[in-house]
Known about the structure:
This protein is α/β, with parallel strands linked by helices. The protein has a single domain (about 5-20, about 45-205), classed as Rossmann fold. It has helices at about 25-30, 40-45, 55-70, 75-95, 105-115, 115-120, 140-145, 155-170, 200-205, and strands spanning about 5-10, 125-130, 150-155, 175-180, 190-195. Strands 1-5-2-3-4 form a five-stranded parallel sheet, sandwiched between helices. Helix 3 (about 55-70) packs across helix 4 (about 75-95) and helix 3 (about 55-70) packs across helix 5 (about 105-115).
Amino acid sequence: MIGCFLKVFTRFGMAHKNKQNYSPYKARKEKAGIDLKANVLISKRDFKPEKIYELEEANDRLADIFRNHDFTCSHEERKKLAAFYCLLMKNQEHQNFTRLLKIKDVAIKHFIDSMIVSELVDIKFPLIDVGTGPGFPGIPLKIRFKNETILLAEGVQKRVEFLKSVREDLKLENLVIIGRNINEHFVYPVQSVITRAVEDIPNTLKNV
C-alpha cells in the first residue's frame, strides 16, 4: 500500500475523455442547436497563436503578470517558464496542445495555476502527473522543484515527443516521461498523484 494523497484539479477542455464518452461541451452546444461540424474549421484556426514572443520579451511579460497577481517565483524559474512558453506556442501552430494562446492566459491559467499547488498542499515526491498533456501541471512543478522526481504520464504520442523535447531543451533532471495511459493495472512507487485531465472522479480514484 503506497502512502499517498490525491489532489484532483479538473479543467474542462483538457485532453482526456471520461469513460462514458460524455462531453459537457457537446451537450451544451447540441442543446443550443449549434452544429459542431460547422464550427470545426473555425475552432482549429482559433487555436493558432497570433503572436509568439521571443524568450527575453516573454520573460519580461511573465515578470509583469506575476507581479500583478502577487505570484512569486525566482528569476531562474521564470526564465525556464518563458522558454517553456516559447516551445509550447511554437509547437501549438502544428500540434494544437492548448486553447490558451495569449501569454497572459498561459501565465495565469497554466503557470500560476500549476505552481500554486505547492503553496496549498505539502507535496510528497516522487509525484506523478496523470494525463499531463503538454505538461500541466507537471512541467511548471518540475521547474519549481528542480531536484525532486516527477513523472509525467501521457498516452498521446505527439505529446510524449513534445515532453521529451521540453525535458532536453530545459535540461530538466529527474523528470520521467511515461508514454502510456494510466489505469488500475499500472503500478509505480510514488508518494503523490496530481491531474488536471478531465476524467470522472470515481474512475480517477480507481486508477490512483
